[in-house]
Amino acid sequence: MKPYLGKGHIVCTDNWYNSPALFECLHSQDTDACGTVRSNRKRMPQFKTKLEKGEVHFLHTDKLLAAKWRDKRDVHILTSVHKPVMKVTDNVDHATGDNKVKPECVLEYNQKMGSVDKSDMQISFVDCARKSLKWYKNLFFHLFDMAVLNAFILHKTASKKKTSHFQQIQAQPHLVHIAGVTSVATQLAGPGRGKTRDLCA
């Protein structure tokens, strides 16, 4: 990431990576950041214990803004680029008939990360990976899952047919065997480790 530091970029990440220490480090190198964050991260502030739906609690330092917003569940956001501002959206609350109001940082995070979160969700439906301590195995299977998802999206675009997730799940085992992934996984497992399970069994 070093080539991108010090150029005024804004980084959007999910809660797996984020922490106040990371955001302060990025901010010190002229790089802002925004993303969801786990409430139990070290140096995270203590928010109100319970919020009503639509309610938000902002806390800030001179560099960072932390927000806890209640939607269907609690959402924690950390940002070094936004202000504690609420914005009216185009979505209508059917209970009140009014337009929904959301924190500006949440709206921008959803705009930047929405496609990534959707991709992760779709991959989770047909994830063929197995737990492993070897990072290269996890990386291989994740890249394969992404390739299958991209192929499925291209197929839908080219054929202009509506294909359900169930049909997508049914198709993946055939793609796995056609690609010869089972034999590749056997090679990765190495000798003397028993039989390799069917990846999508």
Question: Explain this structure to me?
Answer:
Residues 1-152 form the PiggyBac transposable element-derived protein domain. InterPro entries: PGBD. The chain is of the alpha+beta class. The chain has two domains: 2-113, no CATH class; 126-189, no CATH class. The protein is 39% helix and 19% strand. It contains five helices and seven strands; from the N terminus they run E-H-E-E-E-E-E-E-H-H-H-H. The strands form two sheets. The chain has a five-stranded mixed β-sheet with strand order 1-2-5-4-3, sandwiched between helices. A hairpin with a 4-residue loop joins strand 3 and strand 4. It is globular and about 45 Å long.
Distance N terminus to C terminus?
38 Å
**Assembly category:** single chain
Unreliable spans are 169-189, 192-201
How confident overall, as mean pLDDT?
A: 76
For the secondary structure, the number of strands is: 7
User: Which percent range describes the beta-strand content?
Assistant: 15-25%
Q: What is the alpha-carbon Rg in Å?
A: 21 Å
Count of alpha/pi helices: 5
Spell out the helices and strands N to C: EHEEEEEEHHHH
Query: Which descriptor suits the 3D outline?
Result: globular
Spatial strand order of the main sheet: 1-2-5-4-3
Q: Quickly give the structural class.
A: alpha+beta
Number of domains: 2
**Helix-residue proportion:** 25-40%
Please summarize the sheet with the most strands. Answer: 5 strands, mixed
Summary of the model, kept short:
Residues 1-152 form the PiggyBac transposable element-derived protein domain. By secondary structure, the chain is an alpha+beta fold.
